[in-house]
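User:
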Amino acid sequence: MARKETAADAANPGRLKQIALTFKMTRKADPMVSLVLAAVGIVTFGVFLAIGFLIGHPVYLGILGFLLAFLAMAIVFGRRAEKAAFGQMEGQPGAAAAVLDNIGRGWTTTPAVAMNRSQDVVHRAVGKAGIVLVAEGNPNRVKSLLAAEKKKMARIVADVPVHDILVGNGEGQVPLKKLRTTMLKLPRVLAGPQVTTTNDRLKAMGDLMSNMPLPKGPMPKGMRMPRGGGKGR
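Assistant: Predicted structure:
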């Protein structure tokens, strides 16, 4: 009688396929990744094997070296894959929103709470550090978007600290690859219930994307974007 396929069995091919796709993507952006991983593995294994011969336990140290070599390769691969991913994302519209979606537990993110005709955009994240407005786009144009969002926050959640971050590589900006780290370093000043209350208030306020009347299908020629969200009747 054939053994039934378990959830773990079904997940393994998907996991291996994901690793293979990640490796292909990384190698495309970082052609040296294969040589680097091989060098890390060989050097790590060789060092432990040499120590094993010196102390008279080559088998034990060889096994340990093999395991640690695999671990070292996984760590190096993870870092280079992350660097390659950020390299491909950088400069793309919505890249900051993708990072915010993976910031981790304790944060509630809302993409594109404000946007202008030039596609400069502001995203919002709420956590124990308070409210963080993350802007991406032209530094000069996006300042007005941030100022308008701060005014909204002051009217609705005046007792909650508001931070603003401009993503970019210029002076006073935060590179995309450092966005998550920068946010996690912000001081935690709110308790769990306060975060929930803040999210509820902001949800009641709504945002640009939920209020804007979007046409179904292709946008008609000559149609202009509305200056603000749709007004309730």
